[in-house]
## 1
Amino acid sequence: MGFMDKTRIGIICGGRSAEHEVSLQSAKNVIDALDNGKFEPVLIGIDKSGLWSLYNQQDFLLNSDDPQKIRLNDNGVKLLVHPHSRSFRRLDTNADFTIDAAFPLLHGPFGEDGTVQGLLKLMGIPFAGADVSGSAVGMDKDIMKRLLRDAGIRIGKFAVINADNEPPSYKEAVCQVGEPFFVKPANMGSSIGVQKVHNENEWTLSIKEAFKYDTKVILEENITGREIECAVLDGAELIVSPPGEVKPLHEFYSYEAKYIDKAGALLEIPAALSGEKSQEIKELAVKTFKTLCCAIFARVDFFLTKDGEVFVNEINTIPGFTKISMYPKLLDQCGIGYRELITRIIESTILRFEKEAKLKTSYY
């Protein structure tokens, strides 16, 4: 343990992703909410080139109040990672240090997709959130939707385009998923690279935009309905929040609406639903969580049509923890405040690690 027996928690943020700035916002809020009586934060930032550095939490961010200009400071101490020794090395002193658990707040590729989870697993460090498989499945919308479909969970129509293949014509795309439809990078979140397509010109531009962020692009049916979200927290007990509703004031729940424009969407928590419909959504959130091999925490997003049909849109295995993020707001409805939420996540992380540590690693 760390100083005065506090648990040393590695807050890992930034990363090689277009969601880098969102990650920094989440990290700032988690550090502010951390119970300093129990935990000692160890702040590890990953810059956009993939370089890992150790930071002082008092000044690790520049422009911290501006979600567009926020960035890591240049004063971090460069780190080396020792995959098989559970330690990090400071390059200024060549001294090694360890952490007791990691809280990855890395949104998008190279952080939410199983890559960092695999590294931490090799290092023998407990980490918050889904394991390697759940993280990878939750990030790849193509694989996610196929697993949901095979589990009998209702999803919208979708089609996949790989960068090596010629994209279909606009007419062919409409035949597959209807009109209008969404074009998205398969492995990206926060609505980055997402376009709503109404005509052939938008189709051509949307494909170019989506392929900037991934080599696989997904086309999704436009489902007209209310946007409902549910938070899942799994530990000593499994807790599902009351559903909340997002009412975008933009054409859809864009990156700007989520993280930049505080008036970009109205959040109604809890959503105005009948008790029966609310229970149906909560049960579907748990089924989705388990189907996609998730753990510790996740947010499940739905569409609710005027006919009362519920469609699963996607799961977010590392939901945002910014000031306007839905996940902590939803669990607040369960009487779990921000600080208690972070504490529960960390405690569940260590409990899972202790259980897994009892598994045999040798046949003889």
## 2
Amino acid sequence: MVSILGRSYDKKKESSLDNHLRGQPVVNVLVVDDDATTCLLLEKTLSDAGYQVFISSSGVEAFNLFLENPIDLVVSDIRMPEKNGFELCADIRATEKGRFLPFLMMTGSDDVDSVEGSFRSGATDFISKPIIYAVLVHRVRYMLRTHDTFMEWKKTESQLYRLGQVLDNSSSEILFIDGETLRFTELNNSGLRNLGFTKEEVTRLHLGDIVLANAEAGESIIDQLEALINGDSKEVRCAASMLRKDGTFYPVEGCAYASLNNHSGKIDIACVFEDVSHRKQTEAQIQHLAYYDSLTNLPSRELFVENFKKVLAISKRNGNQAALLFVDLDNFKYVNDTLGHNTGDVLLCEISAALNTCIRASDVVGLRAEYSLARFGGDEFAIFLSQVIDEASVILVAERILKAVSIPITVESQEFVITSSIGIVMFPEDGSDVDGLLSKADIAMYEAKNQGRGCYQFYAGNV
């Protein structure tokens, strides 16, 4: 069914009219996914960001919507009935109005084949699932800005004076390169300003002198432009690091386009780059907020579960044991109730640091050690251990925790001694899935409290 979720057709027109009256162009985004929940979340996120959203549950229906409506950007899943995301993207690219349309493909986070298939089919960019919706909005805005810059350039390509004005006044960095020598022929004002070079200095530089590979690109800029240089493509997407004259770096993303120089008969290359330093910082902050506890800076429950699943998969494949320890501070509510949450927060940070000292490098194999400890909220913590030899090795860790937590802590001249109760489960003896093991560890922890607190208890089926 085609709809704009949560809005009637009249309200959709009303929203468009409101944008028009405010002098803002209506930007239409087509969302394609056969999962209704994903569609609902995407529609809500993009609508709140000011976009008009069209929803489709299949590739065939989405293509018809694209033909019948002025779509400005497509966000599509890969796996769909009748026509998948690759086929939809290829069909849209084959039309005149869809030739340069921004197309964002949704892929699995570890699915390299899907990423490569997305670009082969003509996608502009991809975003990994699970989607961080705040990052999605930044990505959409960036794609639309880059597309607008390129389309403006295309419109004025044959008019050199107007082209020069557009390039020099663009906020994007636009670099012109001789396709044969790979030397710069021109940079716009934004590029010169960010790099710190003069026009004369730039024309003496080679592409590889200032446009370098970054960690995300994984290949040199010359390798990324190979299809343009060889004449096999007219457009490629690029990610790189720019080297300023003062020796500092900054990340850029964008597209490069090839065209035939009518005077020289050679290929000219134009790179339209945008400095994405701020976006990268924002994405990193959002990622950190999503996966780390704001008080202790320990991994959150979500990150812990994600990494524990990987540990269990590795342990199952290699036939290893693993352990999960669920730690609850005894009578901690009394501290908050009598001394206030500020004192409680200081104690939680001190205890978190103490717990960190209990995790030795030998306890965790295959993942970074800091991912082995997480705060689950309140006064609850969880620890996983991989490649466990036997229960005795787990007991050593549990005893270290009991000792470390119970060391007296002084806060504002007051000394506190906190004890903890620990529930322990073993993989694969007590289960093979994260939720089940967490539930049993919680049961074992309460049994430790029943035994008098300040102790550990392994899970027993009859508890």
## 3
Amino acid sequence: MKHLLVVAALILSSLATRAELFTFYAITSNDSSGHAQFVGETQLYMDVTLLEMGQVSLVFKNDGLEDSVVTRIYFDFMPELNLGLVAINEGDGVDFKATPVNPKNLPAGRGLESIFISDLGVAANNPSPKNGINPNDNLELIMSYDDSYDIFSALGNEDLRVGLHVQSFEGGNSESFVNVIPEPGTLPLLCLGSLALRWIRIKKSRKGKKGDTFTPYLTENESTPLQWVEIKSNHTRRDMPHTRCEAAMRKGFS
């Protein structure tokens, strides 16, 4: 009997700590250059972690420097899953509410082959560009659900879909995104793309400014591990903390 209790405790412990990382893909193309879509797909993440039975933590992160603000989050799920909002835990500068969400459905969600129809949503309070999930901000939603279902399977087979409406991209564009699980090997590619994008954007931001000898590079020391450092005339101009992708790449290569 004692052995059975130990096994049961280990199983419950495993369930409680199970977690997966989800990324998002664009379903709109309001930015004809593709820049906004690329930023959203490489900068937005959702950490899903099981809590006690029947509850799950969803942490939404805008992990990067590019202009973008998550202002609304939508959930489309089969009724049997019985998904419900338990709590909203906001990072500094983030202010969200449960109702009402306007528009009620994810913009362009009805145009998908498998139509996205929102059953639940949360939105940033006005002014939404200020109170939404800006770069390096985060928001945690504690959700309840019918624990006879595997929440990760539901996210993988579209029994549960999460949609983001993201505003304030460079140029004022807005785009919609839906969750997706990266296939093995996909995340490193996304990270490499994000790394390249940051370098290009840094270079582009200084282009044409007379007298600038401006080169971004990666460095690390004891006080600032793996920072982007901008150099002008051989002097440090600005330090920029690494993104999650860059940290993961460093860990993988070390």
## 4
Amino acid sequence: MNKELNTTCCIAGGGPAGMMMGLLLARAGIQVIVLEKHGDFFRDFRGDTIHPSTFTIMDELGLLDDFLLIPHDEQTEVKGTFSGKQYCIANFARLPVVHKVIGFMPQWDFLDFLLKEAKKYSTFQLMLHAEATGVIKNGSKVTGVSVNTPEGKLTINTRLLVAADGRGSIVTRSAGFTPIETSAPMDVLWFRVSRKEGDPEQPLLNLVQNNIFIAITRKEYYQSGFLIKKGDFDRIKKEGLAAFKERLRKVIPFAATRLDELEDWSDVKLLSVSVSHLAQWYLDGFLCIGDAAHTMSPLGGVGINLALQDAVAAANILYEPLGNKTLTLTDLKKVQDRRALPSRLVQKMQVILQNMIISPVLLHPDKEVKAPLFIRLLQYLPLLRTFLGRFIGMGIRPEHVRTPVKTNAN
């Protein structure tokens, strides 16, 4: 016999969106269970970007001072290098926010911080090694979720099931939703490169010939990404690891000798890039947020920001009807109505940038890599760099915490 649990809200997925929504609902007095299929948050090659809007959310929660104590890197500008020449693309110094930088923090540290705060409330529960496998319906209404745990099958009955289990969401597909795909010209190969004294400290974006390299600084290494033409990984592997490392030396010459740290292809992880969205995010008793509702290109690192904005908006809109047991389809529709437009506009901008910057480099390897005209013009237009900083750092329709604190912290 399956074990059963009951809760007001169950969130499938312990990533940024799921943990943020869980924290906000729990402090508002809503019983919430967050399901995480792994045993911890420690997984490499996840997005590490902390946007100015996220620092603002932490400030509105009264947590910013403690949050800033977590080791992280900060930058006031986004820069890119095209064939050896560096350009400033976006500036955050003039944004109307409390912390005018973009940060880079290992995602597991960010999630551990959210968990530490959420555990202060008796209304919050995180279940590890708990994989949501499918929705449970009564007619057209979602009433719960099936869960695999080390102890066996589990059924969680809930007033609201939230799919926050990322791209390829099992829960979303089990609810009958199929994402609408937009073509993406690239995939990303992720790997580590160790750091040494004297290395560049800020995140890197370097384009040389048909090679595009990105890196996020960590204390002892770079979380590194190499963009390739979509579907090209098998061909690259056939050419051999030595040939791949030779391509890398062109874009990170300062670390050329350290590329021998890549001993075999198991050290290189493929991220298949997709840009997609759901036509509808909700059913009666069910809601999708974050990557489960809209997958983003890695350009700008905005996926985490959008997921967190979804979580804040959903909590703002739903905490009251959840607490009053009056939740309706209209309430769930309000979440999509508020968040669908920002996500779609950002996706459209990403597609434009992909076509303008990424595709020419990957698809026309014999051409010299030049900075697009608009990036060259940015060097003479500081207000436009600030505008792009606002677009990247705050997004469209930034959210603010409106949920109350109704639960006493432990």
